[in-house]
Each structure stands twice: as structure tokens, then as C-alpha cells.
What does this fold into?
Amino acid sequence: MAEASISSIRIFRQWQPFRDGTYRCSGGRSAEGFDSTIVEITSRDGIAGYGEMAPLGSFYDPSFAAGAREAMKELAPQLLGYDASGIEALNRRMDLLLKGHPYAKSAIDMALWDLAGKRSGLSVASMSGGAEGTRLPLYRSIAQQSPDAMAIRAQGYVAEGYRRLQVKVGLDVNEDIARLEAVRTAVPADTVLFCDANASWGTAETRRFLMATRLLDYTLEQPCASYEENLAIRRATDRPLVLDETIDGADVLLRAISDGLVDGITIKLARVGGLTKAKLLRDIAIAKNLKVTIEDTGGAQIGTAAYSNLLLSTPEGLRQHTVDFHNWVTVSNARGEFFIADGMMSLPAGRGLGLDADPSLFGDPIFASKSQ
It folds into this structure.
């Protein structure tokens, strides 16, 4: 179908400052906002799809915003003329042309899903399995500060309606114990807590934290960096364990399932290469009855809509939660309402991502490639 072939690809850069100021996580790392890259893919019939990739600084994942843009500039001209509806074939082509660097392919893949949805009249949720229900549970992340400051921030998020909080730990263990205790005391007993070390502890620090907090109710998320360290912790505790940074592809997920390592996983679109590969991981997790979180490394409305659509097509009983990144930042990149109440989010209804992406909000394109 000639009208479905890719006729042009444009790339934009959008700086997205954080609403709550500097975001701090383990090891003293911090960021002031998301450096987002937005991709527009237009088919020959004039329909456009949009995707977004926004890393949390250059320290969180093996991703680099400026590098992603250079990779996209290299990939884009080599995708022109191909059938935009052949999303898996285009993913294979990107992998052929550029080895690794999944984060650089994520926004392109996302834009292809959005375009396919607009051309077919279906939402991404419908195309990825069919929506179950209409609302998603949200969590809010509490960046590292003093225990008292984190407790105050937690109370503020609860007042806004959030019922699930992620407490960032991973620094000095004694201080982290105090952080968790302060937050746990400050919020209602039915508030769900996750403790996320972002892979910053070794096994010794993790064991100390687990021993000191054994009477508190929370889920432990990604305590250590290496697979083997996390497996040692799994064998030493009955605390629910979720892995995030470790889950970067199907091979490691299958290994983790075989080893009985995880109770749940967090899938980030940019880490694995976009919606197509995230769906594969999601489907493996469903088959093994694992709890699933689907999100990304950052972004505004475009990114939020993409991962939320995929989570909405995940069985309701296996959905863990997600995050409203578009509410973390002070700028927008699309028009469409996310309805948030009582710690739950409903998505905008519509084809593809369900949004009206607005290029006037992106600024001028930094790159454009068009077929002749």
C-alpha cells in the first residue's frame, strides 16, 4: 500500500523542567528535567504519528539524549519508503542498521504505533491486546532528601490523591532506614510503599536494610546492580522483590523466571527499545503470572500515553502501577486529557496514542528527512 509508506521523518528536541525542582536519586545523582526527543513520522497519505524518548539525565540508564538524536538522524533516511504498518519488520531493520542502542529506536517505534493506530482507527491499547478496564493505578516517586523532608513530600502526594509511593533509597543505609520509617509513619497505613535503591547497594547493605525494616510493609525494588547480587538477596528474604534496571530484554527475563528471582518487573520503553519489545516482555510476564509495571525513563504527554496504553491492555489483576510523568514537568507536547482522581488515571480516548500531538509546542525541528 503506497499510501502507508513512510514519506517523512522529523526530529525535535524539547526541554522539560521538573515541576518539583531538582530530582535526586542514589549516589548523589540529580537532574533538573527531561531532555526529550520527539519523532514525527508521516505516511504518504499525510497521517502523522508521534513518539518520545526522554532519559533521566545521562546517569540512570545506558542512554544519552544527544547520542539518541544522532542515532535517529542516521536511522531516519534509511526508513523512508518502507511500509509504516510493518512495525516489527521496521524494528528488525533498525536492529540491522544500528546494533544495540535500544533507547535510540524507542521513539521511532512509538511513532509507528501511533501512526498505525490513526490509520486503522484503533487505540494502542486495542492493538496491543485490548483494554481491560479504563483506569490505571499511579505511584509517585519521593526523591532523596532528609527523612523529614521526604515525609512532608509524601504527605503532599497523599493529599493530591496518590495511594502508592516509591521511596528512593540507596545511599547510607542508616539514613535510608530513617527515610523509610519517616515516610511510613507520615502516611496512612493503607498507602502502598515501594523502596527503590536503583541498583546502588551491594548485598551487605541490602541485608542490613532488610533486617532493620523487617516489620514494615513495603516491596523492595532493584536493590543491587548485578543479576547475581539480586539473586543472592532473593534467596535470603521472603520480601516481595521487583526488578527494574536488570530487565532489559527477553533473555534476562526468562532467566529471572527460571531462577525464581522476581515477583514483579518494571518495563521501561526506552530501555528495551520501544512498545514492540516492551509488549514481548509484558506478554512473557503475563504468561508467568508476574506483576507488571510499564513506564519509561521520562517524558511528557506523548510518552505517558504510550506506556499507559500498553499497561491498560495488561490483565487488570497483574497491573502493578505506572507513573504520570507528564505531571512531573512544566511543559506539554500534546493536547488531550488524562483524568486523575484517587490515585488512578484514565487515558484520553482516541486513535493511536489518543492524543493530538502539537508540533508548535516542540519548537523547530532539529532534523528532517523526506522521500523524493
Summary: The chain has two domains: 2-121+359-370, 126-356.
